[in-house]
Amino acid sequence: MSVTELSSSPSDDSQPRLARLSSVAQHLLAQARAAGANQCEVVCNEDAGLAVNVRMGDVETVEATRDRSVGITVYFGQRKGSASTADLREDSLAATVAQACAIARHTENDPCAGLADAALMASTLREFDSWHPQPFDADRAIDFALACEAAGREQDARIGNSDGASMNANASLSVYANSHGFLGAERATSYSAGCALIAGEGDAMQRDGWFSVALAQSDLETPSAIGLKAAQRTLARLNPRQLPTGQVPVLFSAEMARSLIGSYLGAVSGGALYRRASFLLDSVGTQVFPAWFGIEENPFLLRGFRSAAFDAEGVATRQSPLVEDGIVSRYILGSYSARKLGLVTTANAGGVHNLQVKSNAGDLASQIKAMQRGLLVTELMGQGVNMITGDYSRGAAGFWIEHGEIAYPVDGITIAGNLKAMFADIETVGSDIDLRSHVRTGSILIGKMTVAGNG
To answer: CA 440 to CA 357: how far, in whole Å?
Structure first.
């Protein structure tokens, strides 16, 4: 593959390629039914990508990729078998079906196995402005990454080193089909660029960076903007201090606040619930957050990172709240986990779609001013979250706030609490929403957490 195959030249061949994948999927379904499967489903994917990495003005890597995968799952009663291939030749496809059938015949019955109910299949299929192929060759990608790094390094003499800059582009096509007669095709592009810089010397060195991501290349931040933000964030971390151990308000910056929402999503996901491995068991209808708090799922957002008319099982998606007035409205379920729990799928096979966390406050600066004194967290380290108990303990770095202003950077600290108490103690969610993710949230202020420092 030449790197320019990522782009849509004057002739965009994505629709013929989707048609070919659809034909392959239907052919495999027919073969599986002929082999005796009472239910079956097929997923076909094609991906093309370009990734460039530079460091200190030199090109380190240029990688062009092109991948294809075809997977089939068959059900004989409630016995399941799956197999996959990257080879579209007829003999390879036939062997893949045969392998999936052989596996199914040797597995145990699972009363929850099978396709999602036919009545739940999506009937209206559409796109959400997620396909924006652009001519983007290796030379242009290199120039973009070099410009990001140069813009950052030129900001201040204290920035003496770099952890590199990157530019990535990807185009993906996918088809899902099943024996209910459902067939859905999707296509999407994505672009990202980022830069990480190092300031200071010896043990006093600090690292930080910035990145931009979008479905359309034109929506990326400029190289100079990315480099400038990376430099500002890196310089702000110089000469950090530690903090004494105590309990203080903790404000998670927007990009860090996403991890709090991610912990909540994990706790209300079907897999954790039916395994009884969540601190939010039997939580639907209960108050977990403050009464003003809400999370809305919107699968139909134009240019949303996770927009889709159907989930990974073909079930029609819908806009609905996950949390409303602080109360858990529903879990996050595919058909299998729903059956395990005696419930109905929420069209979340494959994960959540675009989430919007409700804001009740101004931007980050206004939240800092209102907080007066406490900790602003801009980096989290480690995986210290116990999803069974909700206990939370992670390494952190950020800034100490005094008199409503940033006083100095801090690192070498640990923040701790329990997620259930932390969720209940959320005081504000800012309007400074980070749009670089399918989880859209502003900064989140928790009224009190334990900060473990140097004494």
So the answer is: 6
**pLDDT tens, residue by residue, 296-344:** 999 999 999 999 999 999 999 999 999 999 999 999 999 999 999 999 9
Both 379 and 316 in one domain: the answer is: yes
Closest CA to 274 of 339, 199, 223: 339
User: Does residue 156 sit in the same domain as residue 264?
Assistant: no
**Extended strands (E) in 201-278:** 206-214, 246-252
CATH code of 100's domain:
3.30.2290.10
Q: How many domains does the chain fold into?
A: 2
Domain assignment of residue 10, given as a range: 3-234
386 in the same domain as 264:
yes
CB 316 within 8 A of CB 309: yes
Report whether 314 contacts 121 (CB < 8 A): yes
Chosen domain end from 201, 234, 267: 234
Q: Is there a contact between 432 and 251 (Cβ–Cβ < 8 Å)?
A: no
Determine if the pTM surpasses 0.85. yes
Q: CA 435 to CA 363: how far, in whole Å?
A: 14
Q: Which two tokens stand for residue 99?
A: 């392998």
pLDDT band per the 50, 70, 90 thresholds, residue 48: very high
H or E segment to which residue 406 belongs: strand 405-418
Same domain assignment for residues 189 and 253 = no
* Longest CA span, the chain: 73
Helix 14-34 × helix 90-105 angle, to 10°: 50
